[in-house]
Amino acid sequence: MTEVLPPTTYPFERPDRLSLDAGLRDCRSRPGLVRVQLPHGRPAWLATRYEDVKLVLGDNRFSRALAVAAGDDEPRMFPRVNLPTAIAAMDPPDHTRLRRVIIPAFTARKVSALAGKVKTNADTLLDKMADVGPPADLVEDYAVPLTITMLCDLLGIPSADQTDFRGWVTTLLSNAATRLPVEQVMEARTRMVDYLSGLITQRRQEEAHDLLSAMVHARDEQDRLTEPELLMLGITVLAAGYDSLASQLVNIFYLLLTEPDLQRQLRASPEEIPQAIEEFLRFIPLGWAGGTLARVARQDVEVGGFLVRAGETVVADLQSANRDEAQYPDPDTVDFSRTESSSHLAFGHGVHHCVGAQLARTEIRVAAETILSRFSELRIAVPVDELVWKTGLLRGCENLPVEWSE
User: Fold this and answer.
1) Which one has a higher pLDDT value, 378 or 236?
2) Vertex 118, ends 130 and 392: CA angle to 5°?
3) What is the pLDDT of residue 15?
4) Helix boundaries (H) for 108-210
5) Which of 40, 5, 3, 51 is nearest to 289 (CA)?
6) Does residue 177 have a pLDDT over 70?
7) In this predicted structure, what is the pLDDT of residue 224?
8) What is the three-class DSSP state of 19?
9) Is the bond leading into 228 cis (omega within 30 degrees of zero)?
10) Which of 276, 341, 351, 353 has the largest CB neighbor count within 10 A?
11) Alpha-carbon torsion 215, 220, 222, 226, what sign?
């Protein structure tokens, strides 16, 4: 029988750079699940071990849609309520229906074709950095414009509008840590919806060869999604395709710059970069909290020897799973030779596994290969303690000034 315990505030502590919440190790060492209280919504059970997290994410006995249907009671990091029209709020078959609309844009063939464009864009940005000379900001001069440009090309967004939608996404991914009023967050969402509505109208007048046109075609010609679902799908691609990837790129650069041995290893053996990326994705905690979106048990389910009753909510911490000692020996050490790295859960698991994972890997790989081959002895241009870190849901430096040997 499930023992109802007083919930513990989750996340357990404020993040410090790329350190993982120390309370998670204690949770993994205890049997069963931990009762927690997220910033918003009702209490939930927290899964922290690798096998338990995979079960919660991959077993259809757990439902995202039921969690979202709870409205303001859904355990969540955001102050605003999740909408049922979002793909991240759906279960199959609705989730499958929407995923099939966008998945053709992320096939292995399409991603392979995009690699050349990523390389061209990376070279162009590094040319500008070299022309101006050090110091340069790897956030504003490299990671952000590289990811935004690829997203614009993919969706068909005019490059002149990059600044606007970057601001909207940043606001949407803010939370209680930034103390932004809910009204400000909702205004950003409204502006993004209005902007996407305008682009959708343009595509209906003149179709283009981009993902947004494919989404409009699926709505108008094939009736595969509703108008609200079309808008929410566009917002989801924008948010996931820009800020998450740019932040992770910056985190990888930060780790390479603060751990010189890792940088030297990749310079000496660039063929190790793809495997190194998997280890970076496993090791680096991208979010303020590693809890994925809440799920409700449709029926009684045993998770790691613990009985979750039907109707109870579970939150699974992906970052904790990626540091589980039972899955990864010496998990707090970055080891490029680790054979288990590719089993990480940085892109999720199950039906909600990130559809753009291979494109993200490609962008990270090309970005790392290009800058390491271009600039020797890359280093942070200011004392590390002077770097300012984000306070929203995603971790990363606000700016990362670097210099290099001419």
Assistant:
1) 378
2) 85
3) 81
4) 108-132, 144-155, 162-172, 182-205
5) 40
6) no
7) 87
8) coil
9) no
10) 276
11) positive
Q: In what order do the strands lie in the sheet with 401-403?
A: 136-137, 401-403, 379-380
CA distance 236 to 193: 11
Measured between alpha carbons, how far is residue 301 from residues 27, 55, 64, 165, 273 in Å? 20, 10, 15, 41, 40
> CA gyration radius for the chain?
21
Gap between the Cα atoms of 1 and 308, Å rounded: 9
Distance (Å, rounded) from C-alpha 294 to C-alpha 283?
A: 23
- What pTM value is reported for the model? 0.91
Distance (Å) of CA 91 to CA 202, 262, 352: 31, 41, 9
Confidence (pLDDT) at 231 = 86
**Running DSSP on this structure, what letter comes out for residue 389?**
B
In terms of Cα–Cα distance, which of 5, 46, 51, 6 is closest to 27?
46
Distance, CA of 236 to CA of 92 (rounded, Å): 18
pLDDT (tens digit per residue) in 214-272: 889 888 888 888 998 988 888 888 777 778 899 999 999 999 999 999 999 999 999 99
272 three-class SS = helix
Task: Retrieve residue 3's tokens.
Answer: 């023992």
Two tokens, residue 312:
């109870």
Orientation angle between helical segments 227-239 and 94-102, nearest 10 degrees: 60
Tell me the domains of the chain and their CATH numbers. 8-403 (1.10.630.10)
Residues 6+ apart with CB under 8 A from 71: 81
Is residue 101 within 8 Å of 215, Cβ to Cβ?
yes
Per-residue pLDDT at 7 = 92
Q: Report pLDDT digits (tens) over 32-56.
A: 999 999 999 999 999 999 999 999 9
State the DSSP string of 327-384. Answer: TSSSTTS--TT-TTGGG--TT--GGGS-TTHHHHHHHHHHHHHHHHHHSSS-EESS-G
Distance CA 401, CA 141 (A): 10
Mean of pLDDT values over 112-131: 94
Instruction: Output the six-digit token pair for 242.
Output: 């820009």
Give residue 344's Cα distance to chain centre.
13
